[in-house]
């Protein structure tokens, strides 16, 4: 198949979150499976290596007579042997950040990504790459499926092209004032009320859910949650109407970067049959965090400070948990109010709890390797990667039964023989406290059993080479090939 992968970020070039990891790993795996894959992303100024690639074409996005046509350049880079094209426009993408600054989104994000969506399809035709599948990702590219059936609907170049949208996080839907879509009158003036959010705003994600040929969520459980009123982020009815076209596929994990046997960001390597290196990692984590170096169980957490990550479940019970013989290390940045509350608890328990207000890849690796448990009490988690890293590092994940967390962690009480961690159900602080105490009891009362579960976890792998078959199957269904 010819596959055009359109995303707002790709790891190794520009990244703010897990979307970038998928936008790198999945195209590489599709290429290995024999498909012709091309990637398109915006030409941000943050892509430092972009000057190493040539401009291979240029174009103009035509608008209605009363508006100015929008020029762009197409620059080519490479991801391994996959062509990666940047759609460059200085007004839209020569900015300090991708989506916003100082915790505020850019006011014209709707206009920016509307332009990118249309220009990406136009550039594809200019480059002569006729895609069987256009694979879009999240709200930033969610206008593409609608454009394929409106602006480009009568274009013979795209006559056989089908579209797929992957929803990495349905809470972010791209809601913008209709006037920002001045360059796309077929959407701005659409009579399809289902794409509107009130009379004056258009919801980008609704456009994709209505017009894409297939809809993909990044875990089977999250696909089900999107169709529920609690988990649908206000769009449950839209997802329910497309239930036959929705599938959940668990993300793979890039173990090239996250393998304790080869990880050069941690002080000592180790593997499932020899955990001496993990003991050294724990010692150095305790030193780095200025905690007493001892055999107390360490509960780690690395996350953005947002309610989605369950910080508001942890804060009410954190002091109660810290009265036990434990140590807790949290690394993260984001909401300043949540940061202040964590810092206040850290001052109350300086020998037991450390909060490091930072975004650090090196610290993330050290916490994964040096902790005994890893906390992910998420309010919702479409797929999640840290629980997969934790499994590989023998750091038992403690997760809530949502999204990909439920699909990838087996609870000790529910299935002791196959257990890889601890799972709790209800979005309540005291349910989290109970599961933390369950984990603590196992560590203290039965070290041998703890090691057995740790061994189970380290043998667990979620590989892109497995997930890619499900993506190929979804593409074939979209194309009517099966």
TrEMBL record:
Sorted UniProt keywords: Glycogen biosynthesis, Glycosyltransferase, Transferase
GO CC annotation, single: cytosol
Regions annotated as coiled coil: none
Any single biological process term in GO: glycogen biosynthetic process
Reaction(s) the record says it catalyses: [(1->4)-alpha-D-glucosyl](n) + ADP-alpha-D-glucose = [(1->4)-alpha-D-glucosyl](n+1) + ADP + H(+)
Any one GO molecular-function label of the UniProt entry: alpha-1,4-glucan glucosyltransferase (ADP-glucose donor) activity
Sequence ranges assigned to domain Glycosyl transferase family in this UniProt record: 294-441
Database matches in InterPro entries: Glyco_trans_1 (IPR001296), GS/SS (IPR011835), Starch_synth_cat_dom (IPR013534)
CDD domains found in the cross-reference section: GT5_Glycogen_synthase_DULL1-like
Binding site for ADP-alpha-D-glucose: 15
EC number: 2.4.1.21
Superkingdom: Bacteria
Pathway membership, UniProt: Glycan biosynthesis; glycogen biosynthesis
Domain Starch synthase catalytic residues, every copy: 2-239
NCBIfam families xrefs: glgA (TIGR02095), PRK00654.2-2 (NF001903)
UniProt similarity note: Belongs to the glycosyltransferase 1 family. Bacterial/plant glycogen synthase subfamily.
Primary role: Synthesizes alpha-1,4-glucan chains using ADP-glucose.
Protein name (record): Glycogen synthase
Species for this entry: Tolumonas auensis (strain DSM 9187 / NBRC 110442 / TA 4)
GN (gene name): glgA
């Amino acid at each position: 198949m010819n596959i055009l992968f359109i995303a707002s970020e790709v790891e190794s070039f520009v990244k703010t979150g897990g979307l970038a990891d998928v936008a790198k790993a999945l195209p590489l795996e599709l290429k290995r499976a024999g498909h012709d894959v091309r990637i398109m992303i915006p030409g941000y100024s943050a892509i430092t290596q972009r000057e190493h690639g040539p401009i291979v074409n240029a174009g103009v996005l035509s608008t209605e007579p009363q508006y100015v046509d929008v020029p762009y350049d197409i620059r080519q880079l490479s991801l391994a042997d996959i062509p990666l094209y940047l759609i460059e426009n200085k007004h839209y993408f020569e900015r300090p950040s991708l989506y916003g600054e100082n915790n505020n989104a850019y006011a014209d994000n709707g206009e920016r990504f509307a332009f990118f969506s249309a220009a990406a399809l136009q550039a594809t035709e200019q480059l002569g790459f006729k895609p069987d599948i256009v694979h879009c990702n999240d709200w930033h590219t969610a206008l593409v499926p609608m454009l394929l059936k409106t602006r480009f609907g009568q274009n013979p170049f795209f006559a056989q092209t089908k579209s797929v949208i992957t929803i990495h996080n349905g809470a972010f839907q791209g809601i913008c004032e209709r006037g920002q879509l001045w360059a796309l009158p077929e959407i701005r003036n659409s009579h399809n009320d289902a794409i509107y959010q009130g009379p004056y705003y258009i919801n980008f994600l609704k456009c994709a859910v209505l017009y894409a040929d297939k809809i993909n969520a990044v875990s089977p459980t999250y696909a089900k949650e999107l169709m529920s009123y609690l988990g649908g982020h206000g769009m449950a009815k839209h997802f329910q109407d497309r239930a036959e076209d929705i599938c959940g596929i668990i993300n793979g994990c890039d173990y090239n970067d996250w393998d304790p046997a080869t990880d050069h960001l941690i002080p000592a390597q180790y593997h499932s049959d020899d955990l001496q290196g993990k003991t050294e990692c724990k010692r150095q984590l305790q030193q780095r965090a200025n905690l007493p170096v001892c055999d107390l169980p360490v509960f780690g957490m690395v996350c953005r400070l947002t309610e989605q990550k369950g910080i508001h479940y942890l804060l009410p019970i954190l002091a109660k948990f810290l009265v036990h013989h434990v140590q807790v290390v949290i690394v993260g940045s984001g909401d300043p109010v949540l940061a202040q509350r964590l810092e206040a608890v850290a001052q109350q328990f300086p020998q037991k709890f450390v909060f490091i207000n930072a975004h650090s890849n090196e610290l993330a690796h050290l916490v994964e390797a040096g902790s005994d448990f890893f906390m992910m009490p998420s309010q919702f988690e479409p797929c999640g990667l840290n629980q997969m890293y934790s499994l590989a590092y023998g750091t038992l994940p403690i997760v809530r039964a949502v999204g990909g967390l439920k699909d990838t962690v087996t609870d000790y009480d529910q299935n002791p023989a196959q257990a890889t961690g601890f799972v709790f159900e209800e979005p309540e602080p005291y349910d989290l406290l109970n599961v933390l105490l369950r984990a603590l009891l196992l560590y203290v009362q039965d070290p041998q059993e703890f090691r057995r579960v740790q061994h189970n976890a380290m043998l667990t792998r979620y590989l892109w080479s497995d997930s890619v078959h499900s993506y190929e199957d979804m593409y074939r269904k979209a194309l009517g090939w099966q």
